[in-house]
Amino acid sequence: MTTVFGPPFNNGAPFYQFLTAAGDGSGAIDHTGNYSVTPQEVKIQATDSEVLLITALVLVIADDTTFDPAKYGAINALANGYDLVTRINGVSVGLLRGNRIKTGFDIMGSGADFRFTEMLKDRPLLQAKFSFSDGFPSGIQLKGVDADKLSVTLNDNFTGMLMNRFIATGVKI
Description:
Jelly Rolls
């Protein structure tokens, strides 16, 4: 029996997985490209035989210079921004209550737990944890047979950043 951020689940195994274009954790994990012309969806999606219980999404961004909360890391504020979206049984739901992440202020105001640290000298790192316990007390259940997913669509230019990662955590049932 395993307990992770919620009620106990028999035969559950804690996991974390990077959101990637493929949805299975393979491929690029740093989303620091220019997606302003061709948007890029990064996601976690269970395989046909899996059920994933997502309890949180962790955002990790790093840059070469001091973070300015009016910007996204050290790059300018995002023109389009992004939402955290889940699709369950074919129905998509934005998890940020109609808001979009465009700046550090947006991350701070989203209800995420966040902290600033230094990766190396003069290389700031921001970690933000979006917990899904408010709207989904046991987490977000993604069933592979239903093609459920948790995704972020990037539609801005992130070039110049050192790191822009999204990591889902939870239990594989």
